[in-house]
Amino acid sequence: MGLLDGKTAAITGGAQGLGFAMAERFVAEGAKVVIGDLDLDATKAAVDKLGGSGVAAAVRCDVTVSSDMDTLLATAVETFGALDIMVNNAGITRDATMRTMTEEQFDQVIDVHLKGTWHGTRKAAAIMREQKRGAIVNISSLSGKVGMVGQTNYSAAKAGIVGLSKAAAKELAHHGVRINAIQPGLIRSAMTEAMPQKAWDQKMAEIPMQRAGEPSEVASVALFLASDLSSYMTGTVLEVTGGRFM
User: Fold this and answer.
1) C-alpha triplet 232, 236, 241: angle, nearest 5°
2) What CATH code would you report for 8-240?
3) What ranges do the domains of the chain cover?
4) b (16+ CB within 10 A) / e for 50-84
5) Which Gene3D superfamilies has this protein been placed in (predicted)?
6) What integer pLDDT is reported at residue 190 of this predicted model?
7) Smallest Cα–Cα separation from 227: which of 133, 163, 89, 152?
8) How far apart are alpha carbons 110 and 104 in whole angstroms?
9) How crowded is residue 198: how many other Cβ atoms within 10 Å of its Cβ?
10) Torsion 74-80-82-86 (CA) sign
């Protein structure tokens, strides 16, 4: 028996990377999953990898657009009968020093991460409070705890997700809806492995466990927060960092 048997989850940014790893783990634990991403073809391909229409559905979703989020969540309810879990994971980077960063680069990152998470949290909570149950998992970042050079936009957005999650957790607790956040550190992905070797080595030197994390290791923590294993936890922030900046 899986930890998420009979549950339905919606995951933004679910076509690849951390989002797909979480979708994969959720399906393995018995959940039905609706994944939203900007690239519909890639999202459909991800659904095929997850096992097809019996266990997953694909939706083109721009998290900054309110109506797209409505469509994502409505698809979960209409296709699989409920919305039990929401994972706000979609994200982008537009790195630049504050001196050279454009206003557009700042706005894009804030919109996707912070406004997108607000849309997902708010709209999922509206459905879940009627059911008197639900778990929302918001993906922050270690950058939201310590601040990273070249990421005033990203660090601000990821710190904002922590504040948003805690405030929303207080509002929704008495409705049976739990809201928690995860702060991943250096996780192995196509994006991080494309870093210059010097930057990679510098980050590795900061990690007591002396290795990068795997997407599956973040997915395991998301599973914990999405399942009844964490039934008395809300408003918490779990770091998945190998001990970096503890």
Assistant:
1) 125
2) 3.40.50.720
3) 8-240
4) beeeebbbbbebbbbeeebbeebbbbbeeebebbb
5) NAD(P)-binding Rossmann-like Domain
6) 78
7) 133
8) 10
9) 8
10) negative
Residue 45 token pair = 């391909």
What's the pLDDT score for residue 196?
A: 87
Q: For residue 189, what pLDDT is reported?
A: 86
- Residue 58 parent element (H or E): strand 56-60
Q: For residue range 3-46, list pLDDT tens digits in order.
A: 999 999 999 999 999 999 999 999 999 999 999 999 999 999 99
To 5 degrees, how large is the angle CA 99–CA 100–CA 105? Answer: 115
Structure tokens at 43: 């999202």
- In the block, residue with structure tokens 């599956």: 216
Q: Which tokens is 188 given? A: 């192995």
User: Is residue 162 pLDDT above 80, yes or no?
Assistant: yes
Residues designated as active site: 154
Phi, psi of 66 (to 5 degrees): -55, -45
Note whether 168 and 179 are within 8 A (CB): yes
